[in-house]
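I am still learning, so can you show me any protein sequence you like together with the matching structure tokens, please?
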Amino acid sequence: MKYKNLLMALPLLGAMEVALAVDCSNLTDWQAQSVYTKGDSVTYQSVSYTAKWWTQNQNPANNSTTYAVWNKDGNCDASEPVPQVTVTSPSNNTSIIIGTPIDLAASVSHPQNIAIERAEFFIDGTLIATDNTAPYSVPWQAQGLGSHQLQVFAVDAAGGRGESSAVNFTVAADDFPPGDPNFKIVGYFPSWQGAVSDIQFDKLTHINYSFLLPNADGTLQPLENLSKMTALVNSAHANNVKVGIAIGGWNGGDDSAFETFAASAQGRATFVREVMAFVELHNLDGVDMDWEYPDPGTSANNYALLMKELSVELRARGKFLTAAAVALGYTGGGVLESVFQDIDFLNLMAYDANNADHASMQYAKDSIAYWQSRGLSKEKTVLGVPFYARPTWKRYRTLVQENPANACRDSDGTSYYNGIPTIRAKTEYAKLNAGGIMNWELSHDSKGPASILTAKWEVANGLAPSYTCQ
């Protein structure tokens, strides 16, 4: 048997490729336990990174996007040819049952036929094994439920170091209930913040780009950051995710344009015509109506007429129609029961109840109970959860950056939000009592292992948690 050097795996994330070359001769390797402050530079897997602010235990390769703590400077300069590495096992996007023994393998060659000293196998950025002889492979027993990355590095006799592209795979459990393929995971994505490249498309079914605003005559205002929406649509469709345009939003509490145009047949016709042209022009999959809020009475009747007319046109073209609705209470009466027939599902904004525990588990249950008591089907009920805190309005990602322990609780002492355990519990409840789960909004999420979108996705798909809360 070939000599193998096996090491214990740790839950870190893998390296990303960069194009520039920099001098790393005076830099030290990144250490998880070390504290780094703004301007400190390190190397990690032959790449140079510089800290933007205070950080500890934040893997540079996984925290170097636009809004993350590390800036990726470039590859450490290597003028000589390096080994060429390709992962041959497992295949990309493979699913492996936990506990299954498999061989991790890679093919290695050198453009100048320099001898290869070893191949290093990294899972999620952590070295788990090395192999000194070809063919390069190491035995591994699948562990760590959830998504992972394998990357293999090869070192030649001259010290050159080559790397493979990352291969994604999933470790799944055979004793967890499978996910419902019809369960929806919906995320809102605003025009004014967040990067399309940061979105975890593999953990979503629908994304609503926010917000398109109407005028009082039913025409539409120019959309903010149209190029961003175009990039979103292209990336989402490449990942089989549907994109809708969210129309309205809070807008400072001003819904006067909706009230005016919805009150007349001409205004509604103009609005429907313009919305359909917008959807077709930009290759969108549907519309999410965010009129906040039609009041009971005349306004509710006009809203119902508008939704019926919009539904007819969208369904004729195979497009979806959804709506965002208040969690419960008086304003809920502004959405008549007849609207339930015209929508694909209703996004319940079960948050902002107050400035304290504004999105409690009980509030979520009460919201679902309220709408379903009025006749909304389980399949058309989508529970909303917040990715932010009140009253500080801090993003969840900011809370986690300030203190990683915040990921596992619902308050940091001044802010109230939903941490990982509550998000998991709400998703479990939604699996039993609703047809999906929604969030406002995607750019607030942590991009590290403490992602609450990941927590939702794992529950929805019957996977055990990948992030441990003590």
Q: What stands out?
A: The longest helix spans residues 298-316.
